[in-house]
Amino acid sequence: MFSEQKKGRMAIEGISQQNTIAKGTTITGDVVGEGDFRIEGTVEGNIKTPGKIVIGRTGVVNGTLKSANADIEGSFSGKLVLTDTLSLKSSAVVEGEAEVGKLAVEPGATFNATCAMKGSNNGERKNTQETQKSA
């Protein structure tokens, strides 16, 4: 009886798992996970997760970041590949390349990157407009 409740709770906790790289910690190499990440330290390498990545004020990432969403307050240099939203806070410094579904930039953020807006809705709208023009 108790074990079934515990299994259910563990499954829910696994989905909302958050990994933290604390201030003062440096990781060199690739990081892959299923949960969300909060980075307050330094990562020299690639990060991949289907969840959300938050780079805090003291966080520094140099490499490729692949996820659904990212909030950046700290520093990022490299390539961002996001299926959904990139949110840059006022203290963010981003350099490199970005492929995102949506982009939100607060005043004061530094965004020195090439940016491609990727999204199935944009492609569908474009195809619909081209079809209507040719008809």
Descriptive report:
With 135 residues, the protein is an alpha/beta fold. 21% of the residues lie in helices and 49% in strands. The protein has one domain. It is built from two helices and 14 strands; from the N terminus they run H-E-E-E-E-E-E-E-E-E-E-E-E-E-E-H. Strands 2, 3, 5, 6, 8, 10, 12 and 14 form an eight-stranded parallel sheet that branches. A six-stranded parallel sheet has the order 1-4-7-9-11-13, with no helix packed on it.
Task: Draw up the topology in text.
Elements: H1 2-15, E1 18-21, E2 26-28, E3 31-32, E4 36-39, E5 42-44, E6 47-48, E7 52-55, E8 60-67, E9 69-72, E10 75-82, E11 85-88, E12 93-100, E13 102-105, E14 110-117, H2 120-134
Parallel strand pairs: 1-4, 2-5, 3-6, 4-7, 5-8, 6-8, 7-9, 8-10, 9-11, 10-12, 11-13, 12-14
List keywords for this structure.
alpha/beta; 8-stranded parallel β-sheet; 135 residues; disordered C terminus
Overall geometry comes to globular
Structure class:
alpha/beta
What is the helix tally? 2
**Domain unit count:** 1
The amount of beta strand, in percent, is over 45%
